[in-house]
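Tutorial handout. Part one gives the primary structure; part two gives the three-dimensional structure as tokens.
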Amino acid sequence: MVNPQITWWDGPGDWPNPIPYTGYQDLGLLPDGCAVTEQGISVTVDDAANAVEDTRVPVELVGVFNNFPKWVQNKYTDLGSDMPIANWEEAWLIRAEVEGGETAINLVNEIREHHGLPTVTYLSADDADGIRQMITEERRRSLFLEGRFWSTKIRERLWFPRGYGVTPYSVAYQDGIRMVMPTSEFELNEHLQVSQRGTLCAPEERPNI
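Part two.
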């Protein structure tokens, strides 16, 4: 299921409501290219009559599950769907993070133009915070379901689902942040051992390794 913005969280951490950079339903872009507010809340097609649907995040309401709306993704619909090993858009966004300023805006706009979406005109080159927010949200959308946004969540200290909060969808997140690094990440690093996977988690929250 594709979750909306998280508004039900009552677990640890001083998180606002809704939680920034969460939710993948009805994502949109304003005509000036704005996709996220200064508070990290995504623009949706319900926010303004002139908002444009973001086609990079294809989701669909298909019915009701446990008395709640059920949304599914339409990016990968069968085993033949193209699942890239490398993504040029990720490379553009890495460059945008490094360069910042007008170059970052131009790189994001190249991605937007490729998808036929509104380009960014609302930001100025000297708005460092706005550019960072733009890139964070752009990663969420451009890399939807590719698993490449996890590193951004770690680096930016964004919210991860855990075993707290009364989710309205009866989804058991279980405790901890259960993301185990691949074995190769340890085998290729002479300073790490495979046995160390998950050891920075509390004992009761460590993934099975």
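Part three, for discussion. Residues 28-155 form one domain. Strands lie at 28-29, 52-53, 59-65, 68-73.
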